[in-house]
What we know:
Elements: E1 3-8, H1 13-24, E2 28-33, H2 41-50, E3 55-58, H3 64-73, E4 75-81, H4 88-93, H5 95-115, E5 120-126, H6 150-168, E6 173-179, E7 181-183, H7 202-210, E8 217-220, E9 232-233, E10 235-237, H8 238-252, E11 257-263, E12 269-270, H9 271-282, E13 288-291, E14 300-301, H10 306-312, H11 320-333
Helix pairs in contact: 1-2, 1-8, 3-5, 5-6, 7-9, 7-11, 9-11
This protein binds UDP-4-deoxy-4-formamido-beta-L-arabinopyranose.
Amino acid sequence: MNKSILLTGGTGYIGSHTTLELLNNGYEVVVIDNLSNSSRESLKRVEQLTQKSVTFAQVDVRDAEALNQVFENHNIQSVLHFAGHKAVGESVEKPIQYYQNNVAGTLTLCEVMARNNVFELIFSSSATVYGANAQSPISESMPIGATTNPYGTSKYMVERMLMDLAASDPRWRIATLRYFNPVGAHRSGQIGEDPNGIPNNLVPFVSQVAVGKLDQLQVFGNDYDTTDGTGVRDYIHVVDLALGHIAALRYMDSHQGFEAFNLGTGKGYSVLEVVDAFEQQSGLNIPYTVAQRRPGDIAKCFANPEKASKLLGWQAKCELAEMMRDTWHWQSQNPNGYDQ
Ligand code: WQD
């Protein structure tokens, strides 16, 4: 049996783009997903684009027996763990779901991995683990844990758990990848982000205004200490992010223990700069009003991406214009996402 990479949550936004890049780089891929917040259609499109096939099983990471079966049926070399809930606001209302899915789910996954002698894990973490007081540019050596919502805390708790795991047994090789703000879509416009309901994040919101599904953007605050007063973030093209996972896989093949990496560009853009770049790429006007600051938001958040550059040999390449071009390409071709 050939060795495969297992992706949990592989039909989601970042998982589907990573599946595509893995296939294009010659990896065999097994995807599991409970399809609670994603569509099987994304993988069908990945298969069309790559002309390669993906093994898929509808499995929830909390289901230890079903998960074990996946490890018994395939020769899994490494696990990329994307599966998890990701909406900040929802996590405040439903903390049990977030800790169940994100924390208990990861614990079950690790237990089943160890049972099957698989010890290489790449975890989808978030810049949110640095908390609200971190000064940008943010380095991996800065403290983590001052999180402000259950979503962020769940990512932090998993990181702590994985550190302890790596310290307990030298066979573990664990990389935690702290994503900044993933945006954009595959160049083909065939796969992209397909949020449920009204988007919480800036770029999906803007692109739904562009296709007429939403009336106007609310800019959450223009009195921050930034160039134009609106919040500054480190937007990273999802394909660059996907390639970061491949770089991390290669690195972990020859490094044991636990390592954290920021995946960001190192550059920050304000809300209004993002809107402007989107307007230029789409040729459309995006109406907006300025609203109150969103609770929990900070003025600036961007990465120091040097560690990933030095150790993984990986750097984000796409500029904001390309991110907005590809977002628009996907959204305009798929105004209802995967729901045709
Ligand atoms: C970006 C900027 C907003 C929406 C969050 C999570 C993080 C990660 C990614 C992932 C901010 C402003 C937004 C809108 C606006 N989660 N904005 N109007 O807040 O950096 O990060 O998503 O899985 O953990 O915290 O991203 O896209 O929500 O906001 O003005 O309608 O856009 O205030 O300055 P954020 P975002």
